[in-house]
Amino acid sequence: MPEQVVNMRARGFICINAHPQGCANNVARQVDAAQREGRHAKITPETRVKNALILGGSTGYGLASRIAVAWGFQARTLGVFFERPPEDDRTATAGWYNTVALDRLAKRDKLFAAHINGDAFSDEVKREAVELIRREMAPIDLVVYSLASPRRVHPRTGETHNSVLKPIGAAYTNKTIDLSTRKVTEVTIAPASEKEIEDTVAVMGGEDWEMWVRLLEAEGLLAPGARTVAYSYIGPSLTWPVYRDGTIGRAKVDLENAAARLDALLQKKIGGHAWVAVNKAVVTQASAAIPVVPLYMSLLFRVMGEKKTDEDTAAQMRRLFFEILAGKMPALDEARRIRVDDREMREDVQNEVAALWPQVNTENLSTISGYATFERGFRNLFGFEVDGVDYSLPAETDLRW
Length: 401
Ligand code: NAD
Prior knowledge:
Strand content: 15-25%
Largest sheet: 7 strands, parallel
Number of domains: 1
Structural class: alpha/beta
Bound molecules: nicotinamide-adenine-dinucleotide
Strand order of the largest sheet: 6-5-4-7-12-13-14
CATH superfamily: NAD(P)-binding Rossmann-like Domain
CATH topology: Rossmann fold
Order of helices and strands: EEEHEHEHEHEEEEEHHEHEHHHEHHHE
Number of helices: 13
Shape: globular
Radius of gyration: 20 Å
CATH class: Alpha Beta
CATH architecture: 3-Layer(aba) Sandwich
Mean pLDDT: 96
Low-confidence stretches: none
């Protein structure tokens, strides 16, 4: 059993190790909050989640969704994710340790929690999930689709699609933060080729979500009235060239189109629904990798923090499941999306961020932006700088559920 002192090892926007105790504390804090707030959820017997499948349930919005429904509603959950186990003295990924911690707390609280670590895009993992659900869980009344991946091997063609974060049509230049040097620099991103656009849609668009939901429906594993939700982002116009109007935005439009098709199918077959929920910008492994967005988030956290309207990943998902989805039908926007980003997109918030944007530079980064909040949030994702952990002590890293 290797015990070792684990110090953070980062390379730009990616951290290559994780601290098991820090991850465990993060999960425990989310569990406590879900238990506390879940009691006040205004759910009805029809909207109380009983059996949930969470795709991408080990980190970020997927983990937060899983914890919200498991501890808020005592739902039985199956989490599917793609994480690296520990090996010799190499730590596992954060999502692995998050799941170890979640599993322990679920056992403590006598909650059913099953996990599949593998490629959710593959037929094998889909088959494994179907068998497990049929054997131990059916019928499923909630499917959360929260995958964020740089690539997908297509199950029919065998082709590997790599997603890119690029503008479409013209190059885009704006400010960004170099996370390794804390410098505000300018970045120019060349426009994507047609092939890159198609590849990004293949990875982050709606095809795989549709495959999952259609499979579960065809196998008779969805409960009457079952719901499915996939996550998206819109954000401010200053990031649109690289987000909403860029390759990832094309993929999100594809996701919205899939939602419309799935909604029609589920309404017809089981009286269910499919929605896209547009969430707020929060620090996750996926969002930290997008150019320009970390600098925008730093300003956003400052502005929303001052207004006391900021929510972290877990708080967003508690609001989604305990309030917005508690009733029979959630409020939808003109494109039939659920908006959990309403506080981020408020006019006063966006005006203040837009006013700070031209001013922010390396020198004033720590005074006019909430970069410290962003940076700590980033380190927290991997279990570092988490309250209540003594990082000078050796930690057991060979942990499994
Ligand atoms: P994340 O990186 O924290 O989580 C990604 C999850 O996907 C992890 O559980 C990972 O294990 C899993 N995963 C990746 N590839 C996989 C594969 N091949 N098979 C199985 N699992 C795989 O990301 P996140 O930021 O929580 O993103 C989740 C969704 O939320 C995305 O659709 C993203 O666009 C959306 N979203 C994010 C933000 C934000 O600010 N972070 C805002 C709005 C919407």
